[in-house]
Design a protein that fits this description.
Number of domains: 1
Order of helices and strands: HEHEHEHEHEHEHEHEHH
Number of helices: 10
CATH architecture: Alpha-Beta Barrel
CATH topology: TIM Barrel
């Protein structure tokens, strides 16, 4: 589990700016059991800082697994758990926020055609909330960087066969990988132009180990842009702007005496986000919180203030797309 120091976060508090702007947060987690996890109640507290959070999308974390079933079916327990949790808490949630209006679950796509029953179970248990699959493929040669899959997995025949089933069930794909792997994703996007793909966490720019931010920032930024430029050419590929608070990005905000404010964050975010928006357009970009993972670096209210500062001179229509409409359209939310 990833824990955040709530007392440390209180050292930098801000009021929400542009508080009337509707927001769909397309990327957050809930982790149970509650002891050491991240609960619905904690998330509700985080989003209650003044921003107008009208909808959210829950993203898998391969927790709350179903017991007593074959291993490949265990991840459907997370979808079932979240739906049951929301039903139990109906009426106690904020009337202005529809939490987990969309659910993205995990399925082992390397099962190939045999992944179909897992997808079908997710859809049934998701009660119209289930929208897509995330299969993290993060891998790097460095032992200083955590890998979650084997190298080249997106190019394997089994993975490609499983991926092909997403279109059959009108499901999207959340792509989480490190930026050197984006070339593999581009090949997948070209092969399946009718499957909506969204890149998580700004494409995974690295800033630790052999990619250390202080000494390699310009080289990483150059290569990241080269790979992202290619992906921007595929109309089925969308992008989540966020996730830079993760330790692997190398900004080390969590080691500061006090959390960064939104002005400082916006300065660091802008080179990445504005470049992406220029290439992908506002209709294929969406801001994300990545909570509670990014909570180690800043508070929810400060984060969304930073996003708003980055695009402060954008038009009302452009802001509506970036903060709500693109995410709601991608995940097919009402």
């Amino acid at each position: 589990m990833i824990s955040a120091d709530n007392e440390w976060l209180k050292l930098t508090e801000e009021k929400a700016i542009e508080a009337d702007l509707p927001i769909c947060d397309p990327h957050h987690h809930l982790w149970y059991p509650a002891d050491g996890g991240y609960t619905l109640e904690e998330f509700q507290r985080d989003i209650s800082g003044g921003h107008r959070i009208v909808q959210t999308v829950f993203i898998e974390s391969r927790k709350m697994l179903k017991t007593g079933v074959p291993g490949e079916m265990q991840p459907v327990g997370e979808t079932e758990y979240i739906c049951d949790l929301l039903t139990l808490n109906a009426g106690r949630s904020s009337p202005n926020s529809k939490i987990a209006a969309g659910i993205v679950g995990f399925a082992d796509l390397t099962l190939g055609a045999a992944v179909a029953p897992v997808l079908e179970a997710h859809i049934v248990l998701g009660r119209e909330r289930f929208k897509g699959i995330r299969y993290p493929t993060t891998w790097d040669t460095s032992k200083e960087i955590k890998s979650s899959s084997a190298p080249g997995i997106m190019s394997s025949p089994e993975f490609i066969e499983g991926f092909s089933r997403l279109q059959t069930y009108s499901l999207s794909f959340d792509a989480w990988m490190y930026y050197p792997q984006l070339v593999e994703l581009a090949n997948l996007a070209a092969k399946f132009p009718d499957t909506p793909i969204v890149i998580d966490h700004t494409g995974g720019p690295l800033g630790i180990g052999p990619y250390a931010y202080a000494s390699h920032r310009e080289a990483v930024f150059h290569d990241w842009k080269k790979f992202m430029e290619r992906l921007a050419g595929y109309s089925n590929v969308y992008l989540k702007l966020g996730g830079l608070g993760m330790e692997l990005c190398g900004f080390a905000w969590n080691s500061l005496p006090r959390p960064p404010g939104s002005v400082d964050l916006a300065v660091h975010f802008a080179p990445y986000f504005l470049w992406c928006i220029e290439r992908f357009g506002v209709d294929r970009c969406m801001f994300e919180s990545n909570f509670p993972v990014d909570k180690k670096s800043y508070s929810y209210t400060v984060l969304w203030n930073a996003f708003k500062r980055v695009v402060h001179n954008f038009s009302k229509t452009e802001k509506q797309a970036l903060f709500h409409n693109t995410a709601a359209r991608f995940y097919r939310l009402s």
